[in-house]
Write a structure and sequence with these properties.
single chain, alpha/beta, Rossmann fold
Length: about 120
């Protein structure tokens, strides 16, 4: 069965790059443009993994992760943060909110897919 990844990023270019890399690796990709949109998508989708940015309008990645984790149905979904941020305090904040892992942009497609496979095993 094909695994589904929800990508949440306000950058159209980044969403396109993620879609290409993940679909080539055999994943079904669902996209959202920010945290609020991501929470709406989750009302109709049950992804195997979520990849989210941190810095987004309307609802940032921290709020999105907290929103995902506040719903019992979504608590077990692994969440990888994919961001340009390298600040240790933000990384800690993301883990405390419920993030599973942290990857710095620009991403290596092979390493991203490897990380997805590890957390969605």
């Amino acid at each position: 069965m094909t695994k589904t990844v929800l990508t949440v990023d306000d950058s159209r270019t980044m969403r396109d790059m993620l879609h290409l890399a993940l679909s080539e690796a055999g994943y079904r990709v669902v996209q959202a443009v920010d945290g609020l949109d991501g929470l709406e998508v989750l009302k109709g989708e049950k992804p195997d993994v979520i990849v989210t940015d941190i810095n987004m309008p309307r609802m940032d990645g921290f709020g999105f992760i907290e929103g995902v984790r506040s719903d019992v149905a979504n608590r077990a979904i692994p969440i990888l943060v994919l961001t340009t941020e390298s600040d240790a305090a933000k990384k800690t904040r993301a883990r405390e909110a419920g993030a599973t892992g942290w990857i710095i942009k620009p991403f290596n497609p092979t390493k991203l897919v490897d990380a997805l496979r590890r957390v969605a095993a």
